[in-house]
Amino acid sequence: MADASPRAAGEPGTTTVHLVRHGEVFNPEKILYGRLPNYRLSETGEQQAKVTAEFLAGFDVAAVIASPLLRAQQTAAPIAAAHRLAVITDHRLIESRNFFEGRAFEASPRLLRDPKMWSVLRNPLRPSWGEPYTEIAERMLRAAAEWRDTFPGRHVVLVSHQLPVWTARRALEGLRLFHRPDRRQCALASVTSAVYAADGALLRVDYAEPNGPTSTGAGSVGA
């Protein structure tokens, strides 16, 4: 069960992995940008990244690792700068694959009336239109575990994307990976924190929104 915010830094014997969602993206055409290159933060997104960096400034952060996509790298930059670190790139943190990438996309019943979409939408549990939830969870948890073990007793920050962060959280909490997108608790530039004991056992998952509630779920394009 998530708390309102991560607990204070410096709990003896614990290691914390902070999963940060990137800030708002400049996307006036409302394209589902997915893994497309060169989608950068908007001015609001840049400010969100700075606010999240201030939120994490008091933690003993040993490393800041980000998805290779520009929006994640830009979000990671002020966090790393606050701790005098360079941003490390980890491709396991990348956005999930999606059939609708590059299209102006709106989730609506109209999709179901198009026969060309039926094969794509046939299995929402997997989901059939993109990277399977199980694959997302596996790569995210593997990355989190490796970086946790690299810096025991400290904090590491992994900057990723909405669906990978939310899928990782559900996996950590032992929940089924299939979910309603409009019920994700993963606001822009939010911080989902997995706190581990010295033996690697998960103690809890905390959650904080340094920028307050922002877009989540089905209303978010690209994520």
TrEMBL record:
InterPro entries: His_Pase_superF_clade-1, His_PPase_superfam, PGM_Phosphatase. It comes from the Bacteria. GO terms for cellular component: cytoplasm. Residues 1-20 are annotated as: Disordered. GO terms for molecular function: phosphatase activity. Pfam families: His_Phos_1 (PF00300). This is Histidine phosphatase family protein.
